[in-house]
Amino acid sequence: MQKVSQIGSxxxxxxxxxxxxxxxxxxxxxxxxxxxxxxLNPATQEVESLVPQATPAELKEAxxxxxxxxxxxxxxxxxxxxxxxxxxxxxxxxxLETIAKNxxxxxxxxxxxxxxDVIRGLQVVENLAGLPDYxxxxxxxxxxxxxxxxxxxxxxxxxxxCPFNFPAMIPLWMFPVALATGNTVVLKPSEKDPxxxxxxxxxxxxxxxxxxxxxxxxxxxxxxxxxxxxxxxKAVSFVGGDAAGKAIHAGASANGKRVQCNNGAKNxxxxxxxxxxxxxxxxxxxxxxxxxxxxxxxxSTAVFVGESQEWIGEVVEQASKLKVGSGLDKSxxxxxxITKGALERAERLIQSAADEGATVLLDGRKPTVEGFPNxxxxxxxxxxxxxxxxxxYQEEIFAPVLVILxxxxxxxxxxxxxxxxxxxxxxxxxxxxxxxxxxxxxxEAGNVGIxxxxxxxxxxxxFTGNKASxxxxxxxxxxxxINFYTQIKTITSLWRQEGVSMNKPSVHMPT
Length: 511
Ligand code: NAD
Prior knowledge:
The chain is an alpha/beta fold and 511 residues long. It has helices at 56-73, 78-107, 111-127, 131-135, 169-180, 195-207, 221-229, 242-254, 277-289, 312-321, 340-355, 391-394, 410-419, 433-442, 478-484, and strands spanning 18-19, 22-24, 27-29, 36-40, 47-52, 139-143, 146-154, 157-161, 184-188, 214-216, 233-239, 258-262, 268-271, 301-305, 359-362, 381-384, 401-407, 422-423, 425-429, 447-450, 466-467, 470-471, 486-494. β16, α12 (391-394) and β17 (401-407) form a beta-alpha-beta unit.
């Protein structure tokens, strides 16, 4: 096993302002590119690292090394691959703090939340302890001396394209499952915060991933185009926004690749008048503003039903108590937005709500954050009396902005949620089993919480967004993830115990 890191001293931890490495054919190398993206610390605007737009030659080399590594890695036994994953999960545990701190510097979220980012991904790796069971085939005797059996085989080289908002969890949704099932990988982290993916790759190598099996390529659209075009890459996993997701789904499909795309969201929390008031308000406020609203499962839209509308004032009160600040400040509840562009877009959408007749009950624009005058900060913002045609409802804001709609009945709330084009997640707060059951059965969203604000399934299940939030037919992680990265081969064999197998040609369809 190649020893490349010690706890807390990963070689890929970017030094401030340094160039991020590519991982090609088992080596962390400098790109020959002339084009770089600046990773700016969202709280300070300091340059954390410089991310190359990998050159065409580097991209090709990454795919070729993955193709070459696949020849041997596919032959590794399930137990051997499981062993690597067991060592990998151990190394992630040991390096959790280093990875989490890098996430705070590059992405901006608060440290406790950054730890959660790593842990939710780590759980996907831990779940691979069940790999042999997931990989089991089936067998049955179909005729005298004849058996049919299935085996689950890897696809080959697979590509991964990641968003900025979970720099550890989402790469971990992808490459460990792909590798454990015998594939090799070309992964593109977000150009906005690639540090965590690099560190995780380094740990995977230390855990025993062979040379070339995992490659990290950086860049923007040209890197994505390469992944979509290169014939060596057989499948593409994407998590990110709608525009990129639609283009990637179409591009990969046109080139005959298997593809799964988890896209954008607008998640509704429905608050019934019989809910446990304190629980519902706290859950809603935490899920709307945690991670500065930059979670695909953020509960960014509340629907207050009937008398629960009287609680809106208390939501505003709780939201106003949250502290916006640096992710490294223990007293901060939420950090900055990822970029100045994201901040300006959110501010514009808040203004559009006011202009379109909604009521901005809590305006978090331009907060003062002592010591961080240049941060991309937006404090919790609550907008009431929102109507479905308004821009702030039509678009995913992806910021600490809660939009509130009102409904008279549960039926009306369900109809509202179902009319929304997205179907990532939703939650109901109620103490009525009948209301919960109605919601659960009639609601058109793929991840449903009942008194649970952010129902992201643990990895023994799969992440099952639907409608515009998902393109493809096989979900991430859990059994679906194994299915996505494998194909089934069905073998029918005849081993005669006695006599000749066939004494004259048979021209009819065997029955
Ligand atoms: P994004 O779509 O801007 O970027 C995602 C990836 O696609 C990046 O690697 C980026 O380089 C690439 N990319 C961006 N534009 C592209 C284009 N036009 N063509 C090809 N590639 C392109 O997303 P983001 O801002 O990094 O992440 C936030 C979005 O991701 C939100 O919409 C959020 O809801 C979504 N998201 C969804 C889930 C989910 O599971 N449904 C999880 C996390 C994030």
